Amino acid sequence: METITQTLSQEHSRCDELFAQAEDMVAKNQWAHAATDFANFETAMERHFTREEQVLFPTVEQCTGQTAGPTQVMRMEHQQMRQVFAEMQNSLTQQDSEQYLGLSETLLMLMRQHNAKEEQMLYPMSDRVLNDEVPSILNQMHQQGEGV
User: Fold this and answer.
1) CA-CA distances (angstroms) from residue 129 to 7, 60, 64, 132, 142?
2) How confident is the model at residue 88, as a pLDDT?
3) pLDDT averages per 10-residue partition of the chain, 148 residues
4) Which residues have a Cβ under 8 Å from the Cβ of 73 and sit 6 or more positions away?
5) pLDDT attached to residue 145
6) DSSP string, the chain
7) pLDDT digits (tens, 9 = 90+) for 22-33
8) CATH number for the domain including 127?
9) How far apart are CA 78 and CA 33, in angstroms?
10) Of 58, 121, 135, 141, which has the highest C-beta tally within 10 A?
């Protein structure tokens, strides 16, 4: 059976690949490619965040009765990353590779810490507490992220 941990960890890996592609294009001052790659990265991240925020987190909160725990921290971190996305987009628009690459380092650190917490704690806990509901939750997440 497919798990939440497997599915969302794979999404993390895909987002990481897209992030690296955009960063590489900025480093080479290939701005048109960088803009496209960054847009693809941001779209993938928003799809992932939406799946978590609209499906996984509320389901975990309902099942555990805990709304002020790990899911609240994850939402806050998503907002922090969204702020960095906006700053990175601005640096792309200005074609400022130094600013973009500095922000890229910040975002990379945020993503690594965030993903580790999700992959090592939140996702395995979700697989355990949601147990038989996991296939349904995964189906809902796939449907939720389609329009993003």
Assistant:
1) 16, 8, 8, 9, 20
2) 98
3) 94 98 98 98 97 96 90 97 98 98 97 97 95 94 72
4) 117
5) 61
6) ---HHHHHHHHHHHHHHHHHHHHHHHHTT-HHHHHHHHHHHHHHHHHHHHHIIIIIHHHHHHHH--SSSHHHHHHHHHHHHHHHHHHHHHHHHTT-HHHHHHHHHHHHHHHHHHHHHIIIIIHHHHHHHHGGGHHHHHHHHHHHGGG-
7) 999 999 999 999
8) 1.20.120.520
9) 25
10) 141
Pull the structure tokens for residue 2. 């497919």
∠ CA 70-48-12, rounded to 5°:
85
Domain hosting 129: range is 4-147
Q: Which of 125, 133, 113 is nearest to 5 (CA)?
A: 125
What's the chain's length in residues?
Answer: 148
Return the sign of the alpha-carbon dihedral for residues 5, 144, 142, 16: negative
| Helix axes of 70-93 and 57-64: crossing angle, nearest 10 degrees | 160
The reported pTM is 0.94
How many domains would you assign to the chain? 1
